[in-house]
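Appendix B, example 12.
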Amino acid sequence: MGKLIKKLGVCIAFILIVGCSNDGNETPSQSSMEFNVGGQSFKIIPLYEEVLDYTNEAMENTELNTSGEYYSKVTQPFLESASNEKASLAGGLDYSTYFSPTTSVQTLDEQTVELLKKQEEVNKAIQASLTKSGKSLGGENKTIYVMPVNPDYKTIQNEMKGVSAITVSKDVIVLFLSPTYEKDMLEYAVAHEYHHSVFLENQNEAGGMNLLNGFVFEGRADSFASHLYPEANPPWSEPLSTEEEKRVLEELRENSDSSNTELYYTFQNGDLKKDIPRWSNYKMGFKIVESYLRHHPDVSIEEWTMMDESKMVLGSDYSELVSE
């Protein structure tokens, strides 16, 4: 009888294990991906489990939903990973505002689990875009981090098709996704940020950053991404009206040499008092670059990527923007 009970116990345990393994609701473990395009190496590293470490702790004790706890659970592991990958974060953009606690911990937890279940399709889309981008414009090795977007950032989920990204440095890109992301926007965003990262590989040769250069910086990346993904329609693809373009150009012409960050974000976020629409830097930058490319169709992607901004603007229909 004892042996029979033991056998039944083993069978029940086996059934339970098989039942759990086939449960479609089970949350998979996160997994990285590595691949090469020519001689260039790419690595996709998710941060889903790091975010879940934060949300689990914050849900258990709301007093732990602090910047310090978020830093230890998410930001620090990201920095340590970048260090282990020998991916320099120096000389890049400020990522800190993107790494912050949320007021909607439960929502972030649920969305992170959803993304974990979709990670295979997410990684395939990123790989496809990086492969296409790398074949069009070769660069150095890149590490791409993927994490859920903070649900407090409603614009990303409601207006940007569930996708946001930042090129932290020439080595590192970070993608922020909502489970409702659109595949074409994800591929477009990856191509856009990839172009930024290649540009930053030679930033010392490309000159300093001012307001006009910032417009061209975004315009070049959008031209590159739209060339690879012409069917994608990022939210800033709607062109400025004639009157809006006139106002933006007047403001840009007066301040083209300014390195004032707040002024730059006036065009990024819009300014009601000045009637400057949101994303004017992208819209006008794209138009400037496309104008140059129409006049110089034989210039290679590599050439116009690293071209001096002033030279590009002078070769466009907007040469008056360059200070004498």
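Residues 211-321 form one domain. The chain has two domains: 33-197, 211-321.
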